[in-house]
Amino acid sequence: MRIRLRVIVLSISTISLWTSALLAESQFLSESRQLEEVLDSVRSFRQPLLSKRRIDYSPRAVVERLENISGARRRLEAIRWHDWPISQRIDYLLVRSEIDRAEFEYRIVRPWERDPGLYVDMVRDVAFTELPASGKTLENFREDLRAIPLLLEQAREMGVGLVSARVTEVDVTSNRVKGIRFSNGRHVRTQHFVNAAGPYLNDVARMLEVDLPVYNELHLKVAFRDPKGVLPRNAPLLIWTDPQELPWSKEERDFLAEAEDTRWLLQDFPPGAHTRPEGGPESDIILFLWEFQEKIMEPVFPPPMDDQYPEVALRGLARMLPELSGYFERSLKPQLDGGYYTKTRENRPLIGPLPFSGAYVIGALSGFGLMTACAAGELLAAYIVGADLPSYAPAFSLDRYQDPEYQKLLANWPDSGQL
Ligand SMILES: Cc1cc2nc3c(=O)[nH]c(=O)nc-3n(C[C@H](O)[C@H](O)[C@H](O)COP(=O)(O)OP(=O)(O)OC[C@H]3O[C@@H](n4cnc5c(N)ncnc54)[C@H](O)[C@@H]3O)c2cc1C
Q1: Rounded distance from Cα 104 to ligand 1 centre (Å)
Q2: Is the pTM of this model over 0.85?
Q3: Do the Cβ atoms of 195 and 384 come closer than 8 Å?
């Protein structure tokens, strides 16, 4: 009988030990879940964002984030963690140090109030997106681009000033660049100067008494609405490479032939009318470009427009896309703008050193400067940092014009059909 009682007493205490172990286990599980939740909210301190990667430092967002940090700390302190196994205690301390770090940044360091470089880095970083991009990457890239004006606005609100001035002088001593003077009177000491002045490439080069073999061509561009979908949205760049006469009706021809200032519209026009869709599937814009009159000139801004350009370009492109003729009478008002192609005579850019130590040029990028920007920048950077140059470097350096072989090549340069 005694023995039996003992067995019963023993089994009751085993059950209670087992139950309390279960209770401790479930409490530990629930508290470690709480730790995970705190960790999630710590991760969200970097929100709300201007884009998925650009942080919003507006006063409202900063106050909100400080409240989140305090809330996370309160929830962390409510967790009873001292009896946890060592590896979980380490997790707890890591989450706490993350909260400490965020609080230090948001209460003490406050870089958005003190460091203009923060904004510069966030904006500059966008340029390191790998292109071409698609899907999520493209979506993030677009979001980043949209965030840039907001970031600049925040920077201005925090007192970051934008200093805008033109380079007016390059100081050179003993054939070495020593500094740059600006139109606002400021002088910056530097040993490196890159002339990347686009249409003003030669004006800036002349500050160094260098004359670059470049000129500027006026190029106009029409943004035209195509609600009939004549050009499919997935069409590539289309170029008409034959010379042509513009399509006019008999009455129109007779009318144009009457006046001196309209007769030129009946002449032969050069090849090169080109078009492509602009924007995604939701857009109905197409772009027209056609330099039917070569206009070499000194750059003036805004560039002079030509009101007849949209109609001439439309008719020129109707040779290639006859359904565009449906817009001859009724087109939605086209947008005309333009700029300059800065070119060398053989239409190869200038990338490399100028004849002064520390001075470089990158320009004459003609009508392909956006497409070639990365490769052109990489080549120039290789010169500046003294890295190995690629085999094609001589084809773009200013020195090429000193080479008699290159001069011979230039003399017989074929028409490459470049636009
Ligand atoms: C109508 C049109 C359509 C085009 N379409 C395409 C296209 O589809 N694809 C393509 O790849 N390319 C295209 N281009 C060409 C492209 O725009 C150019 O090749 C490119 O912009 C040239 O870049 P850049 O940096 O050399 O010059 P720019 O972009 O002109 O920049 C030069 C900069 O230097 C500054 N500057 C000048 N003088 C001074 C000074 N003294 N002090 C300080 N700053 C100075 C200017 O203010 C400017 O900001 C097109 C051009 C035009 C006109």
Answers
A1: 43
A2: no
A3: no
Contact at 8 Å (CB) between 352 and 396? yes
Among 163, 166, 240, 153, smallest CA distance to 198 is for: 166
Series of mean pLDDT values for 10-residue runs along the chain (419 residues): 46 51 67 85 69 80 90 92 88 92 91 89 81 82 88 87 91 96 96 97 97 96 94 94 94 94 94 92 90 93 93 95 92 88 96 97 96 96 97 97 96 81
Beta strands in 64-113 (DSSP E): none
Cα distance between residue 235 and residue 229, in whole Å: 11
Question: Taking Cα atoms as reference points, which of 251, 279, 265, 255 lies closest to residue 316?
Answer: 265
Identity at 267, one-letter amino acid code: Q
Q: For residues 4 and 141, what is the distance between their CA atoms, to the nearest angstrom?
A: 77
Buried b (16+ CB within 10 A) or exposed e, 50-59: bbebbbbbbe
Q: What is the CA(366)–ligand 1 centre distance, in A?
A: 8
Question: Domains, the chain, ranges and CATH?
Answer: 32-116 (no CATH), 167-213+345-411 (3.50.50.60), 215-343 (3.30.9)
The residues lining ligand 1, judged by C-beta closer than 6 Å to any ligand atom, are 166-167, 196-200, 204, 219, 221, 338-341, 363, 365-371
